[in-house]
Design a protein that fits this description.
The complex is a heterotetramer of chains A (154), B (297), C (652) and D (186).
Chain A: E1 11-16, H1 20-29, E2 38-43, H2 51-59, E3 64-69, H3 80-98, E4 105-109, H4 115-132, H5 140-153
Parallel strand pairs in A: 1-2, 1-3, 3-4
Helix pairs in contact in A: 1-4
Chain B: E1 6-9, H1 20-32, E2 36-39, H2 48-54, H3 56-72, E3 77-80, H4 83-96, H5 99-106, E4 118-121, H6 122-130, H7 132-138, E5 147-151, H8 160-163, H9 173-180, E6 184-185, H10 204-220, E7 225-228, H11 231-238, H12 241-248, E8 256-258, H13 259-267, H14 271-274, H15 284-289
Parallel strand pairs in B: 1-2, 1-3, 3-4, 5-6, 5-7, 7-8
Chain D: H1 6-9, H2 12-22, H3 34-38, H4 49-57, H5 61-65, H6 69-72, H7 78-82, H8 89-102, H9 109-125, H10 130-141, H11 151-154, H12 170-185
Helix pairs in contact in D: 2-8, 9-10, 9-12
The chains are: A alpha/beta (154), B alpha/beta (297), C alpha/beta (652), D mainly alpha (186).
The structure holds flavin-adenine dinucleotide (FAD) (2 copies) and iron/sulfur cluster (8 copies).
């Protein structure tokens, strides 16, 4: 029952607590209407995001993953988003090899004051995922095997 | 001096009539500066103000026809002396970046519209592509002693997003050229104020008021002559100067040059080929004061 | 684990578009959930009591509250569960207001989404462990950056409260903009008469160390224990010896130096004390204009100085200050109005800024308090004020209202009449923003008693006409274009973030908005806090503010610091990383990536291992994502916890 | 002065049509008057341009479309260049003229006739033929040509021709016009 059949797709967001999560809050406070597909997981810093989280999320059946952190040089922890960017760029190049359409994953920056920007990001990304349609799902046992291979690869 | 500047040249309707001297002098100074101008074959009217007041697709189609003529020449850059033509061409290009608009325009045309051609004014290529230094190097008879005010008109630089040239409130292109020719340029505060545009016929009173103010201010600033870059401005200020005097009770006798004419004079070109004799307000005394030996008008 | 779920209505804020009862019903089916209910206002006293009672009666050992953003009430509810005897980390929050009810109107989709969010929280909670904080020592000194009126107020309040204060000011004197003002609204009392004594207090207070002509070079550490490297810029004058006698200024032959204090109205000497009431009252040499420093010639000041304090070889100096809290009070700068070609872009000498006009009005200013046209020194008859220059203007990227320029314009119109009774003031305005106590009465007085002519409309052009200026604007109430002959035009130039504000924010690890103003912790409830523990804000660096508001914030920030320092030890946040020594192979990758140097190498039975220094770790989790072994885990955000949320959500 | 009932007289289709055709958002206008302040033609207008903006916001279609101002705007762009909200006001004026034409308004007849004559000349000759344009204008307005005095001065300078300049593609241009008429009557 997780997704509303025919209406929503499964989109997961990983947001850093300081900037983007705050930006999503600001969007809420401003009542900036957004599509309802996205579910947000709060992490302290975009540097905490392990590329494996994204792969596992996609393998577990998500149709899109959105990561958002602080603007470059504006990281609450000084360098977290710098590491995040490096890792996630590598991931972006890996995705097609792993069989995921690259358009299903995106990394962006939104600060705590940018409610309107957050609204735009979510709206655009959701549209993009709806254009791609539901992701092909991987079956159980094979999935964990592939997953192990990937873990080794990363 | 090696110079690979080469452009398609779109003269605009007034060049065949009321601003023939602008056309002549533009060609003459470009030749002197080794700038090659090739006439756009069988060019047609850009539609000017009347077309865009009727409809934007019609206006754009009239411009687009000329743009495809340029493209068919195999040239990528076109120049026109007239800021009004330029504004129409550029606005059309800007609007046609929108696909659905371009399709609407194309429906009116024999050939599909081309938006890749780069369009500029003669003034713009002179300061941006050729450069003031090269102009200065060409001067053989400096305009020392001539005090001018440079008047750009309202649409040479506006709107900035479309015209993308010089400063929208205080353009300096002509000021810099005039200074390079050795003239003294007065700071003219009404550089971009409208002269009355094409209202000369249906509402002459408006032109009398607006152009009159330009003349008054230029005189107040101590200018001996005004220098322009727009056929419509030049016509309102020059051809209608007498009418302005009688309407406003003023006593102006201020020559209104095209900047290209003054460039030509400074380059040592003949008055004949610059069309100096076509000006309505006789510039004789001003030119004579420069100590140039000119042919009598 | 026995989990209790509380789904908040927030009045109609949530209930309006989310069926909270259905969310609670769905939650009862989730693994571990023993109890679920919906409640009206969870954060209210009865709401919290309901949680406490449920924990006790149902023997819950974990709580999920589905309500607003955790940035709002996570602390509140952690304390609630603690009151009921649970560890505060056995609590999770699902954000169904900001992230659900406020951004969508579809009740079905919202309810469904809220259920998902609760499912995720409950799944994570199953993996939560109790965490305990450690106590650590703090350094009860405070560093204040910026010596404007806000910084001065904060410094004095902290110092009076018994704290050691370090005040760092970029220019060679404290005072900020207020020191440049002539009189202040709405009382029209003399600015330096009220600020001057405060500045002297700063100089004389035994608890305050002032580093003027200094800037922040580096900041490291964390709340309670910051280390700040301060760059003391070379003044070429030994300030220990300088008495501020000013003899050097009378003899310095270089008299064309930019007079920053007077906003460029007039010039000053290369060696100068910016203004007579400067604190510290010390001379500095402006190297750009000193003939000795530029060309090796002159040296007059060295010869003439009675205390022999000139030192042409002086270099920048660095000092490190250890403090437990930081207050940023760096104020604002004026918008660069020369982008407005239609106002002359700086071409016309008789078009000046409001701050230049303040200097001209000031009796201690460059004109001795006489209003004179910069072009010819003549007294103006018609003074035209233009408001909202570089404010409320999207075309120059400044859509916000500066907030105080309506008021100071009214003040300047009043003062103009006082100085020149024959003169007449005209004010072009769009709206009059005068919302403080006695403010609207004040702007009305400018019109009613001082005969200032207010014209509603913007100005589109200023240009010289004869020796006057022609101002062309609109009177939108009359519905016409209007023209005015002006002798002097004063632009009410808006405020923007101080130069260098962004760089400083990055050093302090605080956020700023798209205009460079610093972000407060919460727009209503945490106006002087930032999201970085131990860093506070005061005054216009957070957004344009008049003096009363800047001073209030200075005091508020001081109160926050005094509150922070009221404990002898601070509790560390236990959301830190921990190394599983069995899994760690000592590769050292985590140590290299930790931005805070919080991981050290230890020797464990002859093997290299990593260990986190809890009091230094800030809990970013960068190390956790770096470690190839999964050996270092950020508590409360472990791989398992995050993946349990993923799994709750994506179950094929 | 009339009392305008804001709710019943507001033509919201008109508001959205102006927005669509001009690509400008009308609610951005906060009535600062800067456009009016700089408009060189304000003296000739019956309604200053900022009030035109206000009237459009209020959906006052008729008041706007019958205004003389529309026909006296020279598209000098100073309003557009200086609007603090980056509204392309000149473009809105253009769009209003289009609408006025469609609805049969012509606030200043002489101007409209002059523009029509101009286009007529272009349609016929591919380029503007000044003498022809004048003849056309005079015959439509029934006005005596007040610029008569200019003729004798201009003719000898070769600035006025009595025949249109030869242009081969004139058919092509004429087709643009005829297609336009077809398209717009659809
Ligand atoms: C023309 C004018 C007239 C005004 N009149 C009035 C009035 O009559 N009444 C009223 O209430 N308000 C008035 N104001 C507003 C008033 O100026 C402000 O409210 C006040 O100055 C704000 O104080 P502040 O301490 O926040 O900032 P500021 O006064 O700007 O002080 C900031 C200080 O920080 C320093 N600084 C900046 N960056 C750094 C850095 N990186 N490191 C170290 N130091 C730094 C600056 O040098 C400055 O000393 C007026 C403003 C203007 C422009
Ligand atoms: C319709 C309306 C909408 C508003 N909307 C907003 C908004 O959206 N955002 C915003 O920022 N602000 C808003 N405000 C303003 C906001 O209400 C005030 O800023 C805020 O309430 C001020 O808080 P306070 O504590 O100073 O005063 P109050 O809220 O008035 O609290 C004073 C308290 O003191 C008690 N009290 C009074 N006298 C005594 C006494 N002698 N002994 C003991 N107790 C006493 C009163 O009973 C009361 O509980 C709004 C105001 C109104 C009227
Ligand atoms: S807990 Fe949050 S959502 Fe619930 S009533 Fe309080 S503020 Fe509103
Ligand atoms: S530097 Fe010397 S002369 Fe100048 S103020 Fe200081 S003590 Fe006086
Ligand atoms: S050495 Fe420099 S500062 Fe000193 S008196 Fe000479 S010019 Fe002035
Ligand atoms: S305070 Fe007044 S002058 Fe300043 S920006 Fe706001 S409205 Fe404009
Ligand atoms: S979580 Fe890790 S990387 Fe971040 S501060 Fe703590 S030890 Fe350093
Ligand atoms: S990265 Fe992991 S394995 Fe390497 S030292 Fe750090 S904790 Fe140990
Ligand atoms: S300048 Fe722009 S905002 Fe101001 S009244 Fe005109 S259209 Fe409206
Ligand atoms: S474009 Fe038209 S409305 Fe705008 S300023 Fe020029 S004449 Fe006035």
């Amino acid at each position: 029952m997780p997704v509303l059949k025919g209406k929503e797709l499964r989109i997961v967001g990983f947001l850093c607590n300081w900037c983007s999560y705050g930006g999503a809050d600001t969007a809420g406070v401003g009542r900036f209407t957004q599509p309802t597909d996205l579910r947000i997981i709060r992490v302290p810093c975009s540097g905490r995001i392990d590329p494996l989280f994204i792969i596992k999320t996609l393998m577990n059946g998500a149709d899109g993953v959105l990561v958002s952190g602080c603007h470059p040089r504006d990281c609450h922890y000084a360098e977290g988003n710098f590491y995040a960017r490096r890792r996630l760029e590598v991931l972006h190049r890996f995705l097609p090899i792993l069989g995921f359409e690259p358009g299903r994953f995106e990394y962006t920056w939104v600060s705590a004051s940018e409610g309107q920007r957050w609204q735009q990001v979510v709206t655009r990304f959701t549209e993009q995922i709806h254009k791609l349609g539901p992701a092909p799902k991987i079956a159980g046992p094979e999935a964990s095997k592939t997953l192990r291979q990937m873990e080794a690869a990363l | 001096m090696s110079c690979a500047l080469s452009y398609a040249y779109y003269p605009g309707c007034s060049s065949t009539g009321t601003s023939v001297e602008y056309d002549m002098s533009s060609r003459a100074i470009c030749a002197a500066l080794d700038i090659k101008l090739s006439d756009v074959p069988d060019w047609s009217c850009c539609g000017s103000t009347p077309a865009h007041t009727v409809d934007h697709t019609l206006s754009s189609a009239l411009s687009a026809r000329n743009l495809s003529q340029v493209a068919s020449m195999g040239l990528t850059a076109a120049v026109t002396p007239c800021p009004s033509c330029l504004s129409n061409l550029r606005t059309a290009q800007h609007r046609m970046k929108n696909d659905s608009f371009r399709q609407k325009v194309s429906k009116l045309l024999d050939r599909p519209a081309d938006i890749t051609v780069e369009t500029k004014s003669v003034l713009q290529i002179l300061v941006e592509d050729c450069g003031v230094d090269r102009i200065r190097a060409k001067v053989t008879r400096p305009l020392t002693g001539l005090t001018v005010a440079a008047y750009y008109g309202c649409i040479m630089n506006r709107p900035a997003e479309i015209m993308n040239f010089d400063d929208r409130e205080h353009p300096m292109a002509m000021d810099n050229i005039m200074a390079a020719l050795g003239a003294t340029v007065v700071p003219f505060p009404l550089k971009v104020e409208c002269c009355g545009a094409s209202f000369g016929i249906p509402r002459r009173d408006v032109v009398m008021r607006l152009s009159g103010k330009l003349l008054d201010t230029a005189k107040e600033m101590g200018a001996m002559a005004l220098v322009t870059a727009c056929p419509l401005c030049q016509m309102n200020l020059d051809m209608r100067q007498e009418q302005i005097n009688s309407a406003n009770g003023s006593q102006h006798h201020m020559p209104i040059f095209y900047f290209t004419q003054l460039m030509g004079l400074a380059f040592g070109l003949s008055e004949k080929e610059l069309g100096i004799d076509k000006l309505c307000v006789n510039p004789r005394t001003v030119i004579d004061a420069l100590g140039m030996e000119g042919q009598p008008l | 684990m026995k989990i209790g779920v509380f789904v908040c209505h927030c009045g109609s804020n949530i209930e309006g578009t989310v069926d909270t009862a259905a969310v609670a019903a769905a939650a009862r089916e989730f693994p571990g959930v023993a109890f679920a209910t919906d409640t009206m206002y969870t954060c209210s006293e009865p709401g919290q009591e309901e949680i406490v009672t449920a924990i006790k009666e149902q023997q819950l050992d974990g709580v999920v509250v589905a309500s607003c953003t955790p940035r709002m009430h996570e602390q509140t509810f952690r304390r609630t569960v603690e009151r009921a005897g649970l560890n505060r980390y056995l609590f999770e929050m699902a954000n169904i207001r900001e992230h659900v009810s406020w951004i969508g109107k579809d009740r079905e989709a919202n309810t469904n989404k809220a259920i998902d969010l609760v499912r995720m929280s409950a799944a994570k909670l199953l993996h939560n462990r109790p965490l305990l904080s450690k106590k650590f020592e703090i350094n009860k000194r405070v560093l204040i950056i910026g010596g404007g009126v806000a910084g001065i107020q904060a410094a004095l309040d902290c110092a009076e409260g018994g704290l050691q204060v370090v005040l760092v000011e970029k220019t060679s004197s404290i005072g900020g903009k207020m020191a440049k003002l002539d009189k202040t609204f709405p009382t029209v009392d003399c600015s330096s008469c009220i600020l001057g004594p405060r500045m002297v207090d700063v100089a004389q207070h035994p608890n305050i160390t002032l580093h003027a002509y200094s800037e922040i070079d580096e900041v490291s550490g964390y709340v309670g224990n910051f280390e700040v490297k301060v760059k003391k810029k070379a003044t070429y004058v030994d300030w220990k010896k300088c008495t501020g006698c000013g003899v050097c200024m009378t003899k310095c032959p270089s008299r064309k130096a930019t007079d920053y204090f007077n906003e460029g109205i007039g010039k000053t000497t290369a060696i100068n004390i910016p203004f007579p009431q400067a604190i510290p009252k010390k001379a500095k040499i402006d190297a750009d204009f000193c003939m000795k420093l530029q060309k090796g010639k002159c040296g007059i000041c060295e010869k003439i100085c009675p205390t022999g304090c000139i030192d042409y070889s002086q270099q920048d100096e660095y000092v490190t200050e250890k403090v437990g809290a930081i207050i940023a009070a760096t104020g604002f700068d004026l918008f660069d109005w020369t982008v407005y070609g239609e106002y002359g872009a700086g071409r016309y000498p008789d078009v000046i800024t409001s701050l230049q006009y303040e200097r001209m009005l000031s009796a201690s200013g460059p004109t001795g308090g006489h209003i004179k046209r910069p072009s010819d020194g003549r007294e103006p008859k018609n003074v035209v004020f233009i408001q909202c220059v570089g404010s409320r203007d999207k075309s120059v990227g400044r859509p916000y209202c500066t907030g105080f320029c309506c008021m100071y314009t009214a003040k300047q119109a009043i003062l103009t009449k006082d100085h020149l009774p024959e003169s007449r003031s005209y004010v072009f305005y769009m709206d009059i923003r005068a919302t403080g106590k006695n403010y609207d009465e004040f702007t009305r007085r400018a019109m009613e008693e001082y005969d200032a002519k207010y014209i509603r409309g913007r100005v589109s052009m200023i240009y010289p006409k004869g020796d006057r200026l022609l101002v062309r604007g609109a009177d939108t109430l009359m519905g016409t274009q209007v023209e005015l002959d002006a002798d002097l035009v004063v632009l009410a130039v808006g405020a923007q973030a101080a130069a260098g504000a962004n760089q400083l924010a990055e050093k302090l690890r605080i956020s700023y908005d798209s205009y460079g103003f610093y972000m407060e912790g919460h727009p209503k409830l945490k106006p002087v806090e930032t999201n970085t523990a131990g860093v506070y804000l005061a005054g216009s660096c957070q957004g344009p503010k008049d003096i009363p508001s800047s001073v209030s914030q200075g005091s508020a920030a001081a109160a926050k610091v005094l509150g922070l320092f009221s404990k002898d030890k601070l509790e560390s946040d236990p959301q830190v990383s921990m190394v599983d020594i069995k899994r760690c192979i000592g590769c050292g990758k985590c140590m290299k990536t930790c931005p805070f140097g919080a991981i050290k190498e230890i020797d464990f039975r002859g093997m290299k291992k990593a260990e986190v220094i809890e009091t230094i770790c800030q809990g970013c989790g960068i190390c956790t994502s770096t470690c190839p072994q999964g050996a270092v885990q950020l508590q409360h955000f472990t791989d398992n916890q995050i993946l349990s949320e993923v799994n709750a959500l994506c179950q094929f | 002065m009339n009392v305008i009932n804001i709710t019943s007289s507001c033509n919201s289709d008109f508001v959205s049509q102006v927005e669509e055709e001009s690509g400008q958002k009308l609610s951005l206008c906060y009535q600062c008057g800067k456009c009016t302040a700089g408009c060189p033609y304000t003296t000739e207008y019956d309604i200053p341009v900022s009030q035109i903006m206000r009237l459009i916001q209020a959906g006052q279609k008729e008041l706007v479309l019958k205004s003389k101002s529309l026909w006296l705007c020279a598209t000098c762009e100073s309003c557009t260049a200086r609007c603090p909200n980056k509204i392309d006001v000149a473009r809105i004026m253009d769009v209003l003229r289009h609408m006025a034409r469609r609805e049969g308004y012509s606030g200043v007849k002489t101007v409209k006739t002059f523009w029509d004559s101009f286009l007529n000349s272009v349609q016929k000759n591919g380029r503007v033929f000044e003498v022809g344009l004048l003849a056309n204008y005079i015959s439509h307005t029934g006005r005596f040509w007040t610029d008569m005095g200019l003729g004798p001065r201009m003719l000898p300078k070769g600035k006025i021709h009595l025949k249109p300049s030869a242009m081969q593609g004139r058919e092509e241009v004429a087709k643009i016009f005829s297609r336009y008429t077809q398209e717009s009557s659809k």
